[in-house]
Design goal:
Length: 200
């Protein structure tokens, strides 16, 4: 496989993980830093798939010649009725950071109304592939786990230090990138993409 893949994100952590996972399949994997000044699209879909599609098509409109891959992802916590879900990046408000989002989640689950609630959760990811302004593929992935009582580890990004995947007693913030990528929502969605690439 060869050529360039343009990842429709400004999130350097996502680009980094996607580069690690797909590096062998492309000569170059770049992201929206390659389209300076591009107006970010309004992500007003109500599912990961809808927002992933919005991002893929917006980037494809700017660069119709390129193979575009967009990732929309987030954390669903059962005790929060599946939240923050598609609002994961803005859970602590419009100016949220990964740190304030994690703090808010730990504080929320520590409230008396959540005492005794299951701490089960999952990360979900939908990857949409676009070319010449059209969606040409869509792949999803999920990883089940639970929310820790406190943050552990410095690795990964976002909610990684508070998410303990099923079968482990360490958070994604503590586990190696290799272990995370081998089982993560993003890793699984990208397995679908690789199978599609190989058939193409
Ligand atoms: P998006 O960029 O709109 O798709 O928002 C994704 C948000 O979900 C990120 O800001 C993170 O907070 C969270 N998220 C998605 N994937 C991961 C992951 O692999 N680890 C930790 N947090 C993640």
């Amino acid at each position: 496989m060869s050529g360039t893949l343009l990842v429709a994100t400004h999130n350097a952590h996502k680009t980094g993980e996607i580069r690690t996972i797909l590096g062998a399949y492309f000569d170059e994997i770049t992201d929206l830093t390659a389209i300076p000044g591009m107006e970010p699209p309004v992500e007003d879909g109500d599912t990961f798939a809808a927002n992933s599609t919005i991002k893929a098509l917006a980037a494809s409109k700017e660069r119709p010649d390129a193979l575009i891959l967009a990732d929309d992802s987030g954390l669903e916590v059962d005790a929060l009725g599946g939240g923050p879900g598609i609002y994961s990046s803005r859970y602590a408000g419009e100016d949220a950071t990964d740190a304030t989002n994690r703090e808010k989640l730990i504080e929320e689950l520590a409230k008396p109304e959540h005492a005794g609630d299951a701490r089960t959760a999952r990360f979900r990811c939908v990857v949409t592939v676009a070319q010449a302004g059209e969606v040409v593929g869509q792949f999803d992935g999920a990883v089940e786990g639970r929310i820790a009582d406190a943050m552990t580890g410095e690795g990964g990004f976002g909610y990684d230090p508070v998410f303990i995947p099923e079968g482990y007693d360490k958070s994604f913030g503590e586990l190696s990138a290799e272990i995370k990528n081998g089982m993560s929502h993003r890793g699984r969605a990208l397995e679908g993409f690789v199978a599609w690439l190989e058939k193409r």
